[in-house]
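@channel anyone free to eyeball this complex?
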Amino acid sequence: MSGGHSTYTPTTGIGRWIDARMPLPRLMHDSFISYPTPRNLNYAYTFGGILSIMLVVQILTGVVLAMHYTASTLLAFDSVEKIMRDVNSGWLLRYLHSNGASMFFFAVFIHIFRGLYYGSYKAPRELLWILGCIILLLMMAAGFMGYVLPWGQMSFWGATVITGFFTAIPLAGEWVQQLLLGGFAVDNPTLNRFFSLHYLIPFMIAGVVVLHIWALHVTGQTNPTGIEVKSKTDTIPFTPYATVKDALGMVVFFLLFAYFVFYLPNFLGHPDNYIVANPLKTPAHIVPEWYFLPFYAILRAITFNIGPIDSKLGGVLAMFGAIAVLFFVPWLDTSKVRSAVYRPWYKLFFWLFVVDSILLGWLGSRPAEPPYVVMAQLATLYYFGFFLVIMPVLGLIETPRRLPNSITEAVLAKNHGSAAAHPAGAAAAPETKA
Amino acid sequence: MKKILSGLAALCLGATMATAALAQEEAHNEANPTHFPIHRPAELDWSFAGPLGRYDKGQLQRGLKVYKEVCSACHSLRLVSFRNLEDLGYSAEQVRALAAEYEVTDGPNADGEMFTRAALPSDHFPSPYPNDEAASAANNGAAPPDLSLMAKARTVERGFPRFVFDVFTQYAEGGPDYIHALLTGYEETPPEGMEVAEGTHYNPYFIAGKSLAMPQPISADQVTYEDGSPQTIDQYSRDVSAFLMWAAEPHLDERKMIGFRVIIFLMLFIGLLWMTKRKVWAGVAH
Ligand code: HEM
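replying in thread with the prediction:
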């Protein structure tokens, strides 16, 4: 990670002693202080930092919740209510954790859309992108299992429906489902293994995040122009520039987070989860958490058999395919130009894709009846069409706009060359008043 | 080019939203409705709504009285303990006296026998029935649900685009609005041709069907109010709904108070960071 740009010089005796033995301070300095970042990053680039802090929030609140939570079908619901009523600030912890999960997913979706817009997945950042997709998968597992823990009606029935998908897998299906459940139906063994895994997975995520950031620091960040860093004037040091910008992004994000925690803490949840799980009473509509809804819509859009594949297996394949396809994006996009800024047609199809994803999310919350089914089928068609047809074909036929020669040129053109080309003067400008 | 593109995108978006909003308006069959509730609950003014909302203690005390004298005959409130009632403005003495009106089973004693005793502030509201089976048997097969979380466990779906506006208007009172609508919704007679199952009562506000096993539980002047509030079904329903909201979310006042401070703090912090950011970046073209 320290690469060729290490400018760290320990000033104290202790500093030099540590640096000669285990240069952790050097690593930190090179990663978060002197690390060169493109000078033209916008706020879409602050979501990586936001995601890191949200992972920390989830782990901290989760560890304390786990001190009061009881993973037993007889006690789980009441133990969560005890947290809500009797544990000091327990209501705050739990609302932070449950809304934190939503915020975490909200941020990761924006982070992924950012990547799709600016072509962040293109060479040499394929592994970086794939590590991100793995984090998304792990987050989904963590979110799903976490939602089962309070043992409400949606916890139970969501778990029943989702583990039921696995029976669609030919031959091994039943066996996989029973392994997940620890039995033949969602019950105490299921709750216990989900709690154990729910505790484990966030730490696995933390591990993959380290790899993700390592890969990032090898290739460097992309930027809105999509042009690689070429000279020193293209970059500025991480601190203070990126630090203060990321901090601002984070605090604005916290404002949104706080708004939900304090004023709409149950808006993103389902009222049925305040009813104790009852295996004998199926809710009228079983819906997963909002962040799974687009995938749920895709699952239910496949209402027809395709050759030997029946609609159930087809739905499951489509759902997993919707995530699997992300892994192949670096090779599906054939364009030589990285950023959508210079690709007018891709830009249009990208925004349609964003709208399509939101539409799928809404359709996932609707019952499976007309006209929603047909709408979901069309939206699913566009979802896959975007990746499998538009991305490869558009790259070959689209005429991109003229690219600037460098980041510096793009920035100066935008600012009409009025501002200083190099930041050194700015950092040392004491006369500017705030 | 850019204009055409954004025009196209806007068109697609508009068409989708219109379809989405229209798709929710299903055909309606008076005698044979398929979507419930038949009527949407009215949105009332609650003292605890909005960023500065607080429970009205007088109202909660009246609501408790309605629960005690009417609902508790059938419904339990198992997550609420008597000591929690101090939140409603009662003293420790009053709570002890209130708890002592109830009997709870305790034991076993040294002889291995279960015994009953007067409830203590640390006890929870006892259930009116010994078990769920007894509860269903006494109520035509439908056990009256526990009310502790009722105000958070029911919300009539808001639908698109209402749920988007709710984020900005901070609408979070779907639960009490529903309970109030249900309790005041027995007046109407079923439309011509509708069949109402035996032992159930027509209520167009019920979330899960056209009728439910609970009969109209309360009538005017049934509960005596000492503070001069009107003794009407509407007022009783408002008060007991507010009380049930408190039972489901006892820390709401604290949450909104802390929330207000947190949000002010964050806004000031954002202001300072924004100025710092501008100063740091001043003169750096980006
Ligand atoms: C990737 C990070 C995490 C995500 C996305 C996540 C997500 C969730 C979700 C969605 C719930 C259900 C919330 C509710 O409706 O009440 C939940 C509950 C819970 N989580 Fe997590 N969690 C994460 C990390 C952790 C960690 C690290 C721990 C423990 C060390 C933990 C412990 C718990 C406990 C005890 C509950 C049950 C209590 C409750 O329902 O509030 N979580 N989690």
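from a first look: Strands of chain B lie at 103-106, 115-118, 201-202, 211-212.
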